[in-house]
Input
Amino acid sequence: MKLIEIIKHIESWAPREIAWQKDNVGLQIGESDKKANNILLCLEADDKVIDEALKKKCNLIISHHPLLFFPVKKITPSQDKTSRIIQKLIKNDITLYSAHTNLDYTKDGVSFQLASKLELRNIDFLVNLKSNQYKIIVFVPQDVSELVANAMFKAGAGKIGEYSHCSFNTIGTGTFLGSENTKPRTGKKGNIAAVPEIRIEMIVDRWKLNSVLAAMKKVHPYEEPVFDIYPLENLNVNYGIGAFGELEKALPFNEFLNHISKKLVIKSFRYTNGPKKVIKTVAVCGGSGSEYLKDAISRNCDAFITADIKYHTFQESEEDILLIDAGHYETEIFLLNEIKKRIMLQLNHENEIKVFIYSGSTNPVNFYNN
Output
C-alpha cells in the first residue's frame, strides 16, 4: 500500500477543505507516492519522535500539529529546531503528514474523542460549520434517474449526518426545442418536445461539487444536461467545532472533578467553581477552545472543558458555568487512538505494515509540586 492511499483514507474522514483557512494541513515533508513501511502517530514531530520512527522502521509520521505553520525563510539546522527536524526527515526519507484543524472539526475527531473518554452520551457538535454546502438540482429522464442519482451519491453528494443517499425527487415535464445542430435523445430537432422528467435535489459539500457535477454529466443522457446550483447558509451537520453530551448520571461537583482526573489521567488542572453543584451536561473542545464558551453556556451546559484559558475568561464566566482548563496536550492526545484504529481497519490483512503511537510525550508543559 502506498502512503497516498493512507493519506486519502484520513482525508475521507477529515477533509483538508474543512480546516481553518490559515492552517497548514496535509503533506509537510517528503513524498506520498511510495510504498508504506510502518507508521508512527504523534501530536507533534520532534527529534525524539523521529528517532523512534527510525527505530521502528517507519517511513510515515502522522502528526496532529503541523511542523510547518509559518513560512520557512531559511534552513539552518545548527541554529534552528525546525530546520534540524526538516533535515533529519529528508535525510532519512521519512514523510511527514499533518491533520490539524480538519481533525478538530470532523465527527469522531479531537473533541468527540475527548467526550467519549469522559463517557458522555448522545454526543454532538457544539457548533456546526456553516455556509460550506450547495444544493444541486438536476433534471433527468425518468428511465435513467436512478443511474444519475447513484453516480452523484458515489461522488459524495447526498450525505446528511449518519444518512447517505439523501435526495428529493419530483416528477414533472421538461420541454425543449433543439436547433438544427442538435441530436436530441427524445423528439426531433426543430420541434418542441415535452418529456417526463425527474427533478433530483441533493446537498453536496463545497469541495465535492466539481466531482459530483463531473459524475452526473458522465452518465446523463442529454447533450446539454440541465442543472441548478444554490449556495446554502445551512449548518453542516457533518462537520463542526467542539462537542457536548450528557453523563450517564449527574455527578456532584467534587465527584465530577475526580471523574475528569481519572478519565484524562491528569493530576492537576485549573477550574472555576461555577454556579451548579451537580453536573450532567458537559461541553468540550480539545485544545484551545475558550472562544466557544458562550456556545456552551447557550446550550445550558453545566461544565465546559478545554485548554489555554485566560485569567479574565475564568473571571467572566464563573457565575455561568463550571469552566475547566485540562491542558492542551491532555485534551488532544486521545485522538491518536482513533487514527490508529481507522488506519488498521484500512490496512486489513496487510500485516507487514505496523502502526505505532509515539511511546513518549511531546508535551512541553510540566507542573512543579513542592
Notes: The chain has a mean pLDDT of 95. The chain is about 30% helix and 30% strand. The longest strand covers residues 235-252. The radius of gyration is 25 Å.
